[in-house]
Amino acid sequence: MQCLCETCVADLNTGKTMTTQQKHVTIQHIAERAGVSISTVSRVFNDSAGVKESKRQAVMDAAAALDYRPNLFAQGLASGQSMSVGVLTQNFGSAFYDGILRGIIAGLDNSNYAPLFADGRWRLDIEERALQTLLDRRVDGLILVGPQQSADLLKQLAQKMPIVIISRIVEGFEKFCLTVDNYDAGYRATKYLLDRGHHQIAHITGVLSESRVLRDAADRFAGYRDALLDVGLEPDPDLIVEGNFRTQSGLLAIETLLSRGRPFSALFVANDQMASGVRLGLYRRGIRVPDDIALIGFDDQPHSAYMIPPLTTIRQPAEEMGSIAAEAILNQLDDKPFSLPTMSAELIIRESVKSIY
Amino acid sequence: MQCLCETCVADLNTGKTMTTQQKHVTIQHIAERAGVSISTVSRVFNDSAGVKESKRQAVMDAAAALDYRPNLFAQGLASGQSMSVGVLTQNFGSAFYDGILRGIIAGLDNSNYAPLFADGRWRLDIEERALQTLLDRRVDGLILVGPQQSADLLKQLAQKMPIVIISRIVEGFEKFCLTVDNYDAGYRATKYLLDRGHHQIAHITGVLSESRVLRDAADRFAGYRDALLDVGLEPDPDLIVEGNFRTQSGLLAIETLLSRGRPFSALFVANDQMASGVRLGLYRRGIRVPDDIALIGFDDQPHSAYMIPPLTTIRQPAEEMGSIAAEAILNQLDDKPFSLPTMSAELIIRESVKSIY
DNA sequence: CTGTTAGCGCATTCAG
DNA sequence: CTGAATGCGCTAACAG
Predict the structure, then answer these.
(1) Are the CB atoms for A307 and A295 separated by under 8 Å?
(2) What is the distance between the alpha carbons of residues A119 and A128, in angstroms, rounded to a whole number?
């Protein structure tokens, strides 16, 4: 456990290990122990050049014996790389983000890059700072999930390093965007209800405001609209309410909807959180699901499978997106070609949608 | 936007800005621009010594003009500090962890330290690697949430840097552990049911296995047991089932419980996830909540308020714990005293528990 | 193949 | 108060 080579002993005498609170093994130490120069040590670790097998082995042994850990600061300073890719999300706690993170971890697993996570908590100021800490750490690549930053800034970033933007489309920048086809998903959800014989289908949307950079809500809404139009049905404004993706707003929205008095037999809600609120609202009113109203959500939140009755919903392939994003970053770092597909969401049919026949 | 001082021009001529893909402003540059030496620049940023106000101002101006960002690698290499605290969790996606992270972000907000997140995904091997990436980045402090590492390793870490362990008690190391009083919470949940007139109270526990380092499940169970004993009731083995904290296991557990045929009017479930499963199982059997069986969960997961009926549950003060942990780390870094309380959980009473009177 | 050397950007002595 | 000089640990030419 105690190395007695010249360098180490010198360290001991200078009391260096005392001051620096930590005896950190450096290539200096293992060079000494292996009887080679530090460059050779560096070489075997980066195999940046041929090294005689015997020396190579000696270095490896010494490194193992001393439990060497490279100093990333030194490496980064000297090489300009950090061997890490930054991941910025909006809310660690959501199932969608969590799945993406899982995918990224897996995707980076066999590379030399480590993920560095930061979270914006849906607040622009926090997101800004989080992004800054990532950049300050000189991440070599960036995976941004639903970033709220301006398109300009994003393009600027992309010029400096590999980047992947998830869940948002930046115009003229589609090459770097990985998204789910929300339009298609909305269309299919609605089509499904139509096929089951429903004609009066209400919709609770997500946040639609023009200024919003994320178009998920608008796309789902458009899909709903077009599905109706395609079978000759005119979307009824009275059957449409804008929510804000949060549970509470689902509860409010269903109240609004019911108070308008316009009858409907099915309801497509833009996400499961709001669907939870809706479900509670319907329950309070004594309206049965799916007997009185068919309900379909979006996101396949873990608990949606356990709602009563189980909610029919749409699953975004989060984990897969994470690993695709990671792979794309690695390819960019490697100057290899890459492409980001538009993912398609999957309709998860559970018992809560019942035919009105 | 373009600095024309000697240093910068030299950089331009050497083509340095071209090779290094990025024109990074260094103290060199701002020293030149402000007409001082780099040491002076360094001094004003660290106010490690008095600097004449005029020069100080000049430096600040130059820094602002050039949009200077210190190179953390260089700083870290030279100072031995990273100005960051590592945060290791088991699952970003859970509400409890998410709350803690929120608290940590807030707690670190006004310090010079930035959080660095890593996640173990409940897998020891991943946790190990995550911890390693944190250490490799030379974090100055460590907040570990429900770590599975050996007590030895944790103590070893604590010797090298400030540390806070959340949700786990390491023997002889309580000073660094921040926990919720699960025993008390379990006791009170059960007591509440007793007070409402229930005498046959079943319990679905979390993971109890001896080897488990986390004692949350066992503590909640003990609280349940003692609450019964204290009113002269003998815990009935037939009314106790071990689950694994996951939704699915709640569904299985309630099936097991019902199949035993032993009657009960109330049920305390060790977490909300399992309670969701239970709720579904009861629904399928046509058993009403709370009319037939009173239900109480644990964790106050977001959707528990929207279950049908809303689940009575217990809230752990996650966010508060996060900021307390952050504060404790900062104090340790500052060599100031600190203490980590045992937090007490809060019983959130909703409609799912009804008196039998 | 291998050792020597020069920085990477900054903090920190050490002399003024 | 302030500038010059040294070194943190490592990579990347540069000469053998």
Answers:
(1) no
(2) 10
The DSSP letter of residue B300 is: -
User: Which CATH fold topology does A82-180+318-343 show?
Assistant: Rossmann fold (3.40.50)
**pTM for the structure as a whole:** 0.89
Given a contact cutoff of 8 angstroms between Cβ atoms, the answer to whether B312 and B209 are in contact is no
- Give the DSSP letter of residue B313: E
The CATH 3.40.50.2300 domain(s) of chain A lie at: 82-180+318-343, 182-316
pLDDT at B212: 82
Please tell me whether the peptide bond between A309 and the residue prior to it is cis, using omega within 30 degrees of 0: yes
Is the CB atom of residue B331 positioned under 7 angstroms from any atom of strand C?
A: no
In this predicted structure, the answer to whether residue B225 has a pLDDT above a threshold of 60 is yes
The answer to whether residues A298 and A185 touch, using CB atoms and an 8 Å cutoff, is: yes
Residue to substitute from A23, A303, A351, interface B, most B β-carbons within 10 A: A303
Q: What are phi and psi of B51, to 5 degrees?
A: -135, 140
pLDDT digits (tens, 9 = 90+) for B234-265: 999 999 999 999 999 999 999 999 999 999 99
User: A347 CA to chain B: closest CA distance, Å?
Assistant: 21
* Cα-Cα-Cα-Cα dihedral sign, residues B252, B95, A122, B305: positive
Tokens of A275: 């669907």
What are the pLDDT digits (tens) for B7-22?
A: 656 655 554 443 333 4
Q: Which residues 184-223 of B have a C-beta within 8 angstroms of A?
A: none
Share the mean pLDDT of chain B: 91
Architecture of domain B8-70: Orthogonal Bundle (1.10)
> pLDDT band for position A19 (50/70/90)?
very low
* Closest nucleotide to B77, Cα to C1': D8
B287–A contact, CB cutoff 8 A: no
Mutate to test the interface with A, among B111, B117, B134 (most CBs of A within 10 A): B117
User: Is the Cβ–Cβ distance between B174 and B181 less than 8 Å?
Assistant: no
Q: At what angle do helices A272-285 and A247-259 cross, to 10 degrees?
A: 50
On the question of pLDDT at A20 being above 70, the answer is no
Contact: B308, A69; criterion CB under 8 Å? no
Determine the protein residue whose CA lies at the shortest distance from the C1' of D6.
Answer: B78
Cα–Cα separations (whole angstroms), residue A225 to A5, A57, A154, A191, A221:
76, 67, 31, 10, 6
Q: Which fold has domain B182-316?
A: Rossmann fold (3.40.50)
d(CA B307, CA B77): 53
Which residue in the block uniquely carries the two structure tokens 């039998």? B356
> Residues near A150 by Cβ (< 8 Å), separated by ≥ 6?
none
pLDDT at A2 over 60: no
Contact flag, residue B51 CB and nucleic strand C, below 7 A: no
Q: Which residue of B has its CA nearest to A95?
A: B93
Give CA separation, A79 vs A11, A76, A346, B100, in Å: 26, 5, 44, 36
Q: Please check the confidence at residue B189 and state whether its pLDDT lies above 60.
A: yes
Of B77, B119, B251, the CB nearest to A73: B77
> Is any atom of strand C within 7 angstroms of residue B28's beta carbon?
yes
> What kind and span of H or E run contains A118?
strand A114-119
- For residue A353, give the 3-state DSSP assignment: coil
Range name among A21-30, A340-349, B108-117 with the lowest pLDDT average: A21-30
Place of tokens 């979307």: A235
Pairwise CA distance, residues B35 & B262, whole Å: 86
| A30-56 pLDDT, tens digit each | 998 889 989 999 999 987 777 888 888
d(CA A103, CA A320) in angstroms, rounded, equals 6
Task: Please report residues of A whose CB lies closer than 8 A to that of B283.
Answer: 308-309
Spatial distance between the Cα atoms of B74 and B27, rounded to a whole number of angstroms: 11
For chain B, where do the domains classified as CATH 1.10.260.40 start and end?
8-70
